[in-house]
Structure formats: C-alpha cells, structure tokens
Amino acid sequence: MSRILVVEDEAAIRRGLCDLLAFHGHEPVGVERGDEGLEMALCEDFDLLLLDVMLPGVDGLTICREARARHPGRAILMLTARGREEDVLEGFSAGCDDYVAKPFSVAQLMARVSALLRRSTASTALVINGCELDEADLRIRHGEVTVDLTLRDVEVLVFLHRHGGVARRPELLREVWGYERVDAVETRCIDMHLSKLRKKLAPLGVELIETVRGAGYRLLK
User: What is the DSSP letter of 199?
Assistant: First the structure.
C-alpha cells in the first residue's frame, strides 16, 4: 500500500481521486489548500505527491520545488488544467516526475501513478563509468562523493544505460517521460532536464552524459 498526498482544491475532483486511489489499494490523503499540502509534503512520509497547480495559499509549483529540495527521491505528479507547452516545461523545471493535463482518462492517470510508484521502489544498482548508481536510494557515488538524484534523474540514467547508443529526444520523451505523441511535446524539456542533471553530476568529477550534436544523448560507460 502506497501513501499518496492529493492536493486539489476542487472538492469533487479531490474526492474522486482519493476514491480511485483507494480502490486501487493505495492510502490517499486529500487536502484542499496549498499551504496545508506544503506542510504535509515536507513533514510527513508519502510515496507520491499528486498536485494541482492553481491552489489557495500556496501554488502547486511551489510545493513541488520545496518538496523536491527536502525529499529528492519522492515521486511527484502534477495534475492540472494548465496543459500548454510552457506550463509543462515549468512543471518539469520545478522538479515534477510527470505532468498530466486535465481532462484525463482514469486509465492513463493510474498507469502514470503505477509507473512512478514502481520506479520509486526499484532496488537494482548500476555501475556507470566507475560510478555506482543506487536506484533504490536515488543516489550516485564516485569514491567518497555522493550526489542525490530525483526519480526522473535515475530514469534518464537507467534508460541511457540500457539504450547503449545515442538516445534521441523523441525516444526519451516516449520511454522516460511517457508521452505517446512525442510530436505534440516540445523537446526543450529534455534539454533542460539533461542540462540540470549534468550540473548536478559535476561534483563526481567524472563525465557521464555526452551530447551528440543534432542527434541526442549518450551515456559514457
């Protein structure tokens, strides 16, 4: 059973989400206000945060940023009516692992929820160019240096490792971000995330990700 925080100000949607999650065997906790959701996200133990963006008190993007800073490995899914390209990019920039726009299908939402929860409980370890990637703890180590990662960071590294060659941006959008219509999503979110990830990995002192100009990204093994 996974404990899931649902921060949604529309009562009918909040109740529906909580009922849906409970039906699928999870333990949902629903709150209306963003400030209350932020306090719970920072101070309580949840496996997944499901956040609306436009909330009273504190907006969902702020909750996402602060929760990501406090709990780097926690899965975060943004669920909002703001589905424009710039909104999606802003959500990923804030640190969410996935972004689902309203209206959404129940099957799609539960598939995304299940995928995030499954990935967040991964227990394997990989060695990448002398660095040990711990998928369970969401950390990567090289010698005495340890870097905390987000769930999406780990997914990117694992995908690049398994891919072997040059991974093109549409492949990353489809296989890691979970978008079926990759032509409808701006690939800048890939470049933004990979740029932030490379900066995060810099203290390890080992280059792990190579940009192949005009093609995509490749992991240096």
Answer: H
Q: Say which CATH number the domain at 86 has.
A: 3.40.50.2300
Q: What is the per-residue pLDDT across 134-179, written as a single tens digit (0 to 9) for each?
A: 887 788 999 889 999 988 898 899 899 988 889 998 888 888 877 7
Q: What is the per-residue burial (b if ≥16 Cβ within 10 Å, else e) of 105-136?
A: eeeebeebbebbbebbebeeebebeebebbbe
Cα→Cα distances 205→134, 164, 186, Å: 18, 22, 31
Inform me whether the pLDDT recorded for 182 exceeds 90.
Answer: no
> 34 vs 13, 97, 142, 182, CA distance in Å?
15, 19, 38, 31
Rounded to the nearest angstrom, the gap between the alpha carbon of residue 191 and the centroid of all alpha carbons in its chain is 15
CATH of the domain at 182: 1.10.10.10
**CB-based contact 49:74 (threshold 8 Å):** yes
Question: Distance from CA of residue 125 to its chain's centroid?
Answer: 19
